[in-house]
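**Paired protein data**
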Amino acid sequence: MTSGARRLSAEDRFEIVAVLQRYVQAVDSGRFELFDEAFTPDAVLDYRSAGGPRGSREEIAAWLAKSRAGVVTWQHLLSPPIFDLEGDLVRTHTDAYVPNLVRDERGAVQLLQTGARYHDELVRTPQGWRIAQRRFENTWAFGAGVGALIPDPHRGE
């Protein structure tokens, strides 16, 4: 957190962590209506490093739903976020490890492992903290489907 007179309370920190977790619950379960509890209505999300679009939460939900079709299952595991308070805006950086089970061309289940970082800007709304901007950074990928299901960040795809 940046220095200054104002600090995030423990309650704010817990609520922000819950918002970040609500997002992964929505994505992992395919219950994208939970985006209402994670993002502001006008949120801008950037998933270009994963081969996706930059757009609204509805556009990202549609892209993620389509992406799930090529995956048997996935599960997001998040690190504790790093918090930076700037006025009424909170920036967080959260690392993620996402093991994905995918089927190869023979139908056998294979493991695709991905690492990522979420760069978020959160604002306090009447409903509580919400993500107003998100940038997904694809940091690494290993296993079946690299280059096909997710770009290989080490090849500049």
